[in-house]
Amino acid sequence: MTDTPTPETPPKKRGRPSNAEKMRAALILDDEDDIAFETVKQAARNDPVMGAPMRFVNANGDEEFVPPGEWMRDEWAHLDIVDPETNLPRNMPVEILGMDAKGLTTYVINTKGMVVTLPPNAGKGHFDLVFAGRSNYLTWLFPRYNKKGTKVVGWEADEFKRAVADVAGWSDVYDPDDSLRGRGMWRDKFGNPVYHAGDAILHGGRWKKPGRHDKHIYSARTRTGRPRLYEDLNPAGQRCYDILRTWNWERPDLDPVLQLGWVMTAKMGAFLFRRPAVWLTGPRGSGKSYLQGFLRSLMHEALLASSNASQAYIYRKLGQDCVPVLVDEQESKADTALTDRLLDLVRASYSGDDLGRADKDGGTVTFTLRSSFLASSIAKPSTEASDDSRMALLSLRATDKKGGAYTHDEAYRLGQVLTYRAIRWAPRWDALLETIEKALALKKGHTPRSLDTFAPFMAGFHIALYDQMPTEEQCRHYAALVDPSQLIELNTQMDDWEKCMRFLLGAVPDLFKNRTKEKTIGQIVRYYQACGDKDETDALFRGLRVSLNFKKNTPMDWDHARLFVPNSDPALIDLFNGTNWGSRKGNAGTWNGVLKQAPRDLYEDATSTKGGIDPVRGLAFSLPKLIDYLNGGHDEVEPTDPGMFSAPDPEPPVFDRLQGFEDEDAFGGGR
């Protein structure tokens, strides 16, 4: 990419503090952050040993000690120990969420912040696991005494089980599909980002423990790398872009831009409303594997990477996560089932649909698909236009040089900085995306789908490199980069009706296989165009209900000729057999509904008796208009002027305090 404006730079020191410096000063690490990184073992140190009282602090700041099992007594009411919603202590290390719709399974957040299930026959062993690491708390909550009643020797499982059942009964029906969220970036109800790093949740400018935040449950998962700022990697976006440019791309000015844009959108996961994908191709010696390694490192463990993975593996492994998915070895094969199933996931993730499956117990399970996909192969398999419209097609060429000199540690740290930038930009993302969409829409040829795909990529590239909203010059530059007339992603796409028509014109019907010439419908059409012999053309069509057709009271010449395609024809059923437009014999052909998706000025509903005895309904395509369209003679609709490029930079919400996270201690230190 050439002539790009200067990327982000460190803030200059001035006499008056900048907004970012004020935000840094406002970000004070309080107990909430300390609690977020507190381990279960550390928390257990505050639990009394078996038989000992628990320490509480009253309103005057004085310590009081409550004996085991006495926390509900009136004499301790002034300590406000009991939560009136649950009739259990407020400092419970676990949370009871409720029962499922069948009333058989109870959901609980355990001591590690994980959502676990308790079956109807749950016993002491199940509860021990729920309170793993905090077992002494149970002996204080529901103590079990020796026969003399003088010593605590354990805890009463039946009492606790009844308490759990009561709370579950008082609570709403709990459905994990509605509220459970895994790792990655999400939106809260106000549109602010929530970043789930596995063992801690970043929300509202603070790190918090996994569990309930807002109306959602963020269950603890395996820890991933933290968003961070490193002074030696500033500007990280430019460094990452420079590394990507060292590969031998098919489109050196565009492909590395789209690749970096994908990296940023992939990091934003469920925060986005559209998650475009990338299909990366490259022959042996192109550095494709080396590039994949770079991308994996950039995700600092917040990803799912696999080779030749099945659909079930991907959605089960993801669970409720919205982290990026990198799938290699998606080669073109005669059996397209594996690719088709992968594309099912890409489609669902693109728009944020849920994937429902039946479980082994006769119930259902829903997988939340909010991940950005990158698939790679030596050659891209054949895919539908609707699938291609959701992705960028990036291609590497063979090279003698090894792409991108980088180390895993550098790429890992770069990825942490890019994640930080994605979080910092999140409150302004919607305004940024709208601005770039307006700029791209001024280029003739974009569709709503192509804008949904390429605008996020360009916005992602922008937030990797720049701190401010784009200038008009930058917007024009982005629009020129993804000019529809130059994009192979758009120029190679074909509507389904056009694919069907081209197949109809080019395939050889069984009836014509022994002919020496004019073996296809398209060749018969060309014959008529060349010689104008209607009778001979009708003879060539003999055996098919496809025929030359003329509207009543019009001249029988090429300018008025129509191609009649019947709704049903045994010969066409055989012709379309094995395609997406086939049909069962005796039924109306699927091709009819598909061909009706053609521009309305190309065809009319008609009836014909040619090729049979009874009249049959179908579509009559104007041959001059159809041939002109298939030869590229159709015009795109000129887009309306959406207005100025630059949108006003909205006032950052309180969450933009994240700019203060330049203090690396705010991220708990380390990775």
Descriptive notes:
- The chain has 24 helices and 27 strands.
- By secondary structure, it is α+β, with helices and mostly antiparallel strands.
- Among the domains are: 38-174, no CATH class; 496-630, no CATH class.
- The strands form nine sheets. A five-stranded parallel beta sheet has the order 18-19-22-17-23, sandwiched between helices. It has a four-stranded antiparallel beta sheet with strand order 11-12-13-14. Strands 24-25-27-26 form a four-stranded antiparallel beta sheet.
- Strand 26 (603-608) and strand 27 (616-622) form a beta hairpin.
- Helix 8 (236-244) crosses helix 14 (408-425) and helix 20 (521-531) packs antiparallel against helix 21 (534-540).
- The radius of gyration is 32 Å and the shape is elongated.
- 39% of the residues are buried.
- This is DNA primase bacterial type.
- Residues 661-671 have a biased composition (Acidic residues).
- Residues 1-22, 632-671 are annotated as: Disordered.
